[in-house]
């Protein structure tokens, strides 16, 4: 039972870190041109 006092806050911190990383990636434009990268590797430039 005492382990829950450690695991619950750690899981909340982990979720917050994941959300911050996702927000950062969206803010920096990582998801703007998803199909463009797939086409870029097919072209021989």
Order of helices and strands: HH
| Shape label | elongated
User: How much of the sequence is in beta strands?
Assistant: under 5%
Low-confidence stretches: none
| Helical stretch tally | 2
Fraction of helical residues? 55-70%
DSSP summary, beta strand count:
0
Our Rg estimate from Cα atoms comes to 18 Å
Describe the structure.
By secondary structure, this protein is mainly α. The protein is 69% helix and 0% strand. The protein contains two helices and no strands. The chain has helices at 4-27, 34-40. It is elongated. The protein starts with a helix and ends in a 5-residue tail after the last helix.
Map the helices and strands:
Layout: H1 4-27, H2 34-40
Short description:
69% of the residues lie in helices and 0% in strands.
Task: List descriptors.
mainly alpha, 0% strand, single chain, 45 residues, 69% helix
């Amino acid at each position: 039972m005492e382990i829950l006092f450690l695991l619950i806050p750690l899981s909340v911190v982990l979720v917050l870190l994941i959300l911050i990383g996702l927000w950062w990636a969206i803010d920096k434009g990582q998801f703007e041109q998803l199909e463009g990268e797939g086409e870029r590797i097919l072209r021989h430039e």
